Amino acid sequence: MVSVYADLLRYRELFTSLFHRELRARFKGSVLGLGWYLAYPLVLMGAYTLVFSVLWVAVDLKYYPLFLLAGLAPWVFFSTALQSATRSLLLSAPLVKRVRFPRQLVPLSVTATHLVTLVVMLAVLVPINLVLLPETRDTFWLVFPLGLLLVCLTSGLGLIVACANVFFRDVEHLISALLIPWFFLTPVLYTFESLPGAVQRHGTIIDFLYYGNFVTPFISAIRDPLYFGRLPRATDVVYAVVASVLALALGAFVFRRLDDHLAVEL
Amino acid sequence: MPGLPAGAVRVEGVSRRFRVREEPTLTLRDLLVRRRRPMHEVWALRDVSFGIEPGEAVGLIGRNGSGKTTLLRLVAGIFAPTSGTVAAGGSVSSLLELGAGFHPDFTGRENVYLNGAIHGLKRSYIRERMDEIVGFAELERFIDLPVRTYSAGMYMRLGFSIATHLQPDVLLLDEVFAVGDEAFQRKCFEKVFEFKRSGGTMVFVSHDAAAVERLCDRAILLNEGRVEVDGPTPEALARYHRLLAAEHDPAERTAGLREWGSGEIRVARVTLKGADGEERQKFVSGEPFGVEIVLAAETDVPAPVVSLELRDAVGTLLGGASQRVEEEGWGSGAGERKLLFELDRLPLAEGRFALGVVVSDASGERLYHHLDAAAELLVRPEGPGTRGLVLLDGRWSVRAPSEAPRR
Predict the structure, then answer these.
(1) Taking CA atoms, which of B34, B69, B161, B165 is between 20 and 30 Å from B120?
(2) Which residues of B are less than 8 Å from A17 in CB distance?
(3) Could you tell me the pLDDT band of residue B253, with boundaries at 50, 70 and 90?
(4) What average pLDDT does this structure show over B194-203?
């Protein structure tokens, strides 16, 4: 398992080249460039704020847009990275078929380019929170180690879906279709506690939604220090650590099993 | 593999099976419904064994689908054999497809770095060789433009240039001499020779028998996934020719052999004739020239199309002429027919030339006989001012300055 990721270091020149390729490819010919990374979550934030906080006061939290962004930043990273990673190996088919190189670098570099989104979003969000939400000043730094766990989770999963998509082209459609309900079931727009009476009446469903959806503990754990200014719950952190290690291990396992067949299937 | 010296290649008992599905991609539904899709197994290689010593140049020849490319990919490590072992000592660079992995929106220069990184080279190493790579590809003026603006030839030239500047221990080449114009092909050839001279190991897959003959001392002939011949190039090529004689696939026309075709009609004799109709091989530029072709029909076939191909000593096509033989003149039944092609003035200046004859059916789909260099001719210039390949058959005149066209 280690060697699948250790190649990141051994082939760091290639990794950086692929990373640049992805990044530049996305910005070539676009006027807004890096700004697009910010535009997408900001547009989402604007729309959700209008619907859930102005027109229909579903959740009553102060600075609701900041609450939204604290959840949207990790979610947007996770979902867009997963989607791009799914297609990455297929898009690099000519390369995979003709040249011997550590192919796991392809989905991993794609995930890395989305990390740029996350970093840019946090670079904007953290200072605003520090000013408007003084209680986050002691805890905000926790976002970085927790974000790293999310990156591990996404990298591992990205590797799995990228390989799977080579064999079953349905995977990319499945992922796109899943991400929409997945988003609403993940407490990004709300917290389970903020839903009136939900915890009392539907405790089991909520527990299931909370722990059955492995993204939820990550979102909660990141939002606690970033927005609420409190330490993340220990269970969330333990869950996140275990989930990211598992994702990495499973990603390496799947990749190892399928690596040899990739060039044949493409 | 430890213990294998740099540049050595060891292939032992290698077989490779491919499972081919009738529909190319598996969908999740197939998995869920557990429907067994019809699959057939194809053995691309069966029990192939050979060794290559450092510095050897080995040609891989065989018909389409004989397993050449699969074998090359196994040596490159792109996938693993189903059984057996493949090992190569030192660094292996494969030129399986020129320009694989170029990003269309990137400039040539950016793609050189990217391609180098894919082959495991350091940026600093590539930076040092950038001028050389660009110079070789003859792309100085275009290197900072996106490669999507490149012509196919430019694209290929850059790909070839990168690959040959990687300086691997083992270089794998798959049909790479289809690059660019003839001048660039010659350059590629020189580059590959240089690699060979510097002691690099080379495995070379080609349809072009002449190229294999020039580059490789040893050749391996694959037939239906098995090694048919592994020995000196001429021996392997001779066997390859015999295999091809039974070949009707037009795709094999590119085989680069001197002669191939299905054989219903054969070119029996080609003779060159001078002004007075006598047979000869030496001509003076500009004199009358005739070609007499005797075709032998094995069976009753309709009138064919006959083409002449005039090439220079290096094989550049200088000119061609095609003619559908008239039905009346052709008649019916087996037997010999004589065709005559005449030129009032031979438009060649100086040198050695070869004339090839191609006989096919009227649609051009079925190739009866292709004979390269069916006849050779030696042309000597008519006067001291005639040089080069082509006779510039013009008139000189001198005009007074007043008659010069106004600017």
Answers:
(1) B69
(2) 113-114, 117-118
(3) very low
(4) 87
